[in-house]
Specification:
Elements: H1 15-40, H2 45-54, H3 59-67, H4 70-73, H5 79-102, H6 118-136, E1 138-143, E2 146-149, H7 150-153, E3 157-160, H8 167-180, E4 184-189, H9 193-197, E5 204-207, E6 216-217, H10 219-222, H11 226-236, H12 243-263, H13 270-274, H14 280-291, H15 305-317, H16 319-329, E7 336-337, H17 339-343, E8 352-356, H18 362-380, E9 395-399, H19 412-416, E10 423-429, H20 432-436, H21 441-450, E11 453-456
Helix pairs in contact: 1-5, 2-3, 11-12, 11-18, 12-14, 12-15, 16-18
C-alpha cells in the first residue's frame, strides 16, 4: 500500500473567487425561491420582480408596492412579512454554508491520530470502545454517555488541572457510580467535601483522629507479626537528615509493638504501644532486650548519653502515636476498622472509607496515611488477595490532591500489582512540579507509563504545554 502523499504546502484560499461564487449561488437560490413563491400565489413574476428591484434599498416601500397589487391584497395579513423573514434567513444560511463549502481547509490530515472535539469525539470514542466493552464488560461512564470497559478501569486514571479546573467535578460522578455498583471505595477527602456529603450515611467509614465521627484503626488485626511491626514502625517514623536516630527509633518502636502482639494478641491498641514509655529507660531497655534483641546494643547502657539521645528522639518521633493513643485509645469511637479485612472478598459491610484531610494536623494526617497505605499495599501484594478478572473484584482508590498525603513508600505497588488484583487508582494532581517535589522524578515518570487514562483540565504548568 502506497504511503499517502504529503503536500508541500497547504493551498491558500482565493477569497475573491470564493466570495463571488458564494454570492452567485446564493442569489440563484433566492431567485428560485422568489419565482416559486410567485407561482404558488399566482403572481405575475416579472412585474413583481421589477417592482421589488425598484425598491431594494427600502424594504418597507417594496412591501407596500407589492401589497398594492390586487393579487397580493388577497394574501393573509402578515404573509409577506413572514415570507421576507424566511427568505432573509434562508439567504444568510445559504451564504454561510456555501462559503464554508467552497473555502479550502487550512489543515489537511494526512495520517496518524486526529484531534476530535465535542460530539464527533464522543461518537468516535464510543465506536472504539464498543468492541472492547463486549469482550471485557461495560465499566463506568467517565463522561455523560461515554462508558469505558472494565479492563480500562484497572489501568488507572490521572486527573491533572489547576484549582477550579474541574477535577472534583470529574471525579465525583465516577465515585457515585462506583458506589452504586457496589464497589469498595477508599477516598482521600483533603477538602472535606465528601465528609459533608456522606455525614448521614451509615455505609461510610470516616478515618479522622481529630473528628468524633472517625472510626479507630483496629491495629491489632492488621499488625500481627514481627514483619508487620517493622513495616508499621517504618511507616510511622520518617528518617530525618541524620537517619541513624530515626532507624534507632524504629527499632525501639518495633519492640514496643511486638510486646503488644505477644502479651495481648488481637486486643491491643495505640495506647498499649506507648504505655511502657512511662516506665523510663530501664523498662524500655527490658522491652527491647526481650522483643527485639537485635537492637539491644543501641541502649545497652540505659543511663548512657547515647541511650538517652535515642529515647529522646524516640519520644519526638512518636508524637503521632501519642496523638492516636488519645484519639483511638482513650476516646470512644463509632467503630473499629481493619484494612486487611476490608480488602477481603468476604467483606460486605461498609464499602466506602473516607480518609479525611486536615491541614491543621498535617503531620498526624500524613503519618496515619503512610501507615494505612502501607498496610493496604502489603495485604494487596500477599497471596490472600489473589489475581482476578476486572469484574470479580473492584477496589477504588480515589486520591484527589494526592501530594497532600505526603510520600507514600511502595505506592508503585498499587499501579504495578493492583491491576491484576482488581484495584483501580485515580490520582488527582495540580501539576507535575507538585508531585516531583514529593517523589523522585524517575519514579513519577514510571508511574505515568502505568496509567492508562488521563483527564487534563485548565493548568498553568509549563510541562503540560
Amino acid at each position: 500500500m502506497a504511503a499517502p502523499t504529503i503536500p508541500s504546502q497547504i493551498p491558500e484560499p482565493d477569497l475573491p473567487v470564493v466570495l463571488l461564487l458564494t454570492v452567485v449561488v446564493t442569489l440563484a437560490i433566492l431567485a428560485g425561491g422568489w419565482w416559486l413563491g410567485c407561482w404558488l400565489y399566482d403572481l405575475p413574476f416579472w412585474p413583481a420582480t421589477a417592482r421589488a428591484v425598484d425598491y431594494v434599498p427600502f424594504l418597507g416601500s417594496w412591501l407596500a408596492s407589492l401589497i398594492s397589487h390586487s393579487r397580493v391584497d388577497a394574501l393573509p395579513t402578515g404573509a409577506l412579512t413572514v415570507a421576507g423573514v424566511i427568505t432573509t434567513v434562508v439567504g444568510v444560511m445559504t451564504f454561510v454554508l456555501l462559503y464554508r463549502k467552497f473555502t479550502p481547509p487550512t489543515e489537511i490530515h494526512v495520517r496518524g491520530r486526529q484531534l476530535l472535539t465535542g460530539k464527533p469525539a464522543i461518537r468516535q470514542a464510543k465506536k472504539e470502545t464498543a468492541e472492547v466493552i463486549q469482550r471485557s464488560g461495560q465499566g463506568l461512564e467517565i463522561l455523560p454517555g461515554l462508558a469505558i470497559d472494565e479492563d480500562r478501569e484497572t489501568r488507572h486514571f490521572m486527573v491533572l488541572g489547576s484549582p477550579g479546573s474541574g477535577k472534583t467535578t470529574f471525579i465525583r460522578p465516577v465515585i457515585e457510580q462506583a458506589r452504586q455498583r457496589g464497589d469498595k471505595c477508599f477516598i482521600f477527602d483533603n477538602k472535606s467535601d465528601f465528609t459533608k456529603s456522606y455525614d448521614d450515611e451509615s455505609g461510610v467509614i470516616f478515618i479522622a483522629p481529630w473528628d468524633k465521627r472517625g472510626w479507630s484503626w483496629d491495629i491489632a488485626r492488621d499488625v500481627q507479626n514481627m514483619s508487620d511491626a517493622r513495616e508499621f514502625s517504618a511507616a510511622l517514623i520518617e528518617l530525618g537528615k541524620d537517619p541513624m536516630w530515626g532507624l534507632a527509633a524504629r527499632q525501639v518502636l518495633t519492640a514496643l509493638v511486638r510486646k503488644c502482639q505477644v502479651e495481648q494478641p488481637g486486643e491491643w491498641g495505640f495506647a498499649d504501644i506507648v504505655a511502657p514509655l512511662s516506665g523510663g529507660a530501664t523498662a524500655i531497655k527490658n522491652c527491647v532486650d526481650q522483643h527485639n534483641p537485635e537492637a539491644s546494643s543501641l541502649i545497652e547502657d540505659a543511663a548512657s548519653k547515647t541511650a538517652q539521645s535515642i529515647l529522646t528522639t524516640l519520644v519526638s518521633y512518636l508524637a503521632p502515636v501519642f496523638s492516636l493513643a488519645d484519639a483511638w485509645g482513650r476516646c470512644k469511637t463509632p467503630g473499629r476498622i481493619s484494612f486487611r479485612a476490608w480488602q477481603a472478598d468476604g467483606w460486605n459491610a461498609q464499602k466506602t472509607i473516607v480518609l479525611q484531610g486536615n491541614g491543621q494536623y498535617a503531620e498526624l494526617q500524613q503519618a496515619v496515611s503512610r501507615a494505612i497505605f502501607r498496610t493496604i499495599a502489603r495485604e494487596m501484594s500477599s497471596p490472600s488477595i489473589t489475581d482476578c478478572r476486572p469484574h470479580e473484584r473492584r477496589i477504588w482508590l480515589f486520591l484527589d490532591e494526592f501530594p497532600q498525603l505526603g510520600k507514600l513508600e511502595n505506592f508503585s505497588q498499587f499501579l504495578e500489582v493492583g491491576r491484576s488484583k482488581g484495584f483501580r487508582v485515580v490520582l488527582g494532581l495540580q501539576d507535575l512540579a507538585q508531585i516531583k517535589s514529593v517523589y523522585d522524578a524517575n519514579i513519577f515518570e514510571s508511574w505515568s507509563w502505568m496509567v492508562g487514562s488521563y483527564w487534563i483540565g485548565r493548568t498553568q504548568g509549563v510541562e503540560f504545554a
